[in-house]
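Thanks for the sequence, V.! I ran Phosphoglycolate phosphatase right away. Repeating your input here for the record:
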Amino acid sequence: MSFPYSLVVFDLDGTLVDSASDIAEAVNRTLADWSLPRVEESVIRGWIGDGARALVTSAFEHAGKRIDLEEVMPGFMVHYAECLLLYPTVYPGVVETLQALRDRGVAVAVCTNKPERFVRPLLDALDLGGYFEVIVGGDTLPERKPSALPLLHVVEHFGLQPAQCLMVGDSATDVETAVAAKMPMALVTYGYLRGFDPHAVKGIQVVDDMRELLAA
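Predicted structure:
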């Protein structure tokens, strides 16, 4: 079966990889540095998706602690690096889908708000790195998702038009990004939805398992 797109651009955390426990541990180690109580992983999952600075801001707001973000971020990034590969897992169906897309000649890329320097090590540790020619992180360009810039940067690398490509993500941020880039969109239901209902968005494909993409 042919696939209707020449390129699929994937979000990372909550779409390809479940890294919430590692991210939560980095957040909690940072809170401990400031003598603040730990937060349940289920709560922290609701803060993931808008980049590291937004994540830390949410954590300290939750704790009721006013902080200078510039003072906190260096310590958080140390913990983030230390926790990057503690317990990450690949979601079911991801490897099979990536391989099937490759077999059909479809290019794949990653566009995430995770700091770029952490993306390749995480993918490589999970044996996913070989699939992706292009990776754009949250600090690769002057703007991050939901700006269209990162997504359009990927599209331009392959010499394509947005209509020839599909974005796959798990959040309202990803939807906003795809809309801004005028790119077709698919949403997974298993990621960090943060209360967002994927079925409430018109004109997108909703999948419970990544392998359902192949039937697009």
